[in-house]
Specification:
By secondary structure, the chain is α+β, with helices and mostly antiparallel strands. The radius of gyration is 14 Å and the shape is globular. It has one domain. It has a seven-stranded mixed beta sheet with strand order 1-2-6-5-4-3-7. It is about 30% helix and about 30% strand. It starts with a strand and ends with a strand.
């Protein structure tokens, strides 16, 4: 397990009350999950995960999973969707926010998501 990114967006931090662990890790177990559930996606997008978390185009609160954020960034012809479980201040010491999964998201699916869920953050250039 290694730290791959730092959550820097103040809107995201404030949306969860300011008390989140900003360091984000990606474990070998999660990489195996990504490779199993979304073959080839990790290899294609591995160099874009950090930028997606640190400089997202959109961030949504995952309504299905508590304390989970969905970071989305345009990546060429598609969007990269990185789901992060946020570790809150009341979690035990040494617990980091962590990538749960990642996968590409079409523009159509992103538009549908934006109609259903209000973004916690939307980049100013959009």
């Amino acid at each position: 397990m290694r730290i791959i990114a730092t959550i820097q967006n103040e809107s995201v931090i404030a949306a969860w009350g300011g008390g989140i662990c900003r360091s984000v890790v990606l474990s070998e177990e999660r990489i195996a999950h990504i490779n199993e559930r979304h073959p080839g996606v990790y290899e294609v997008f591995r160099d874009e995960i950090t930028a997606t978390i640190e400089q997202p185009d959109y961030v949504f609160d995952d309504r299905k999973n508590v304390n989970t954020a969905v970071f989305i960034r345009e990546s060429g012809k598609t969007n990269l969707n990185v789901v992060v479980r946020l570790a809150l201040e009341d979690h035990p010491a040494g617990l980091f926010s962590s990538v749960i999964t990642l996968y590409p998201m079409s523009a159509k699916r992103l538009r549908r998501l934006m109609r259903k869920v209000k973004a916690v953050y939307k980049a100013p250039h959009l």
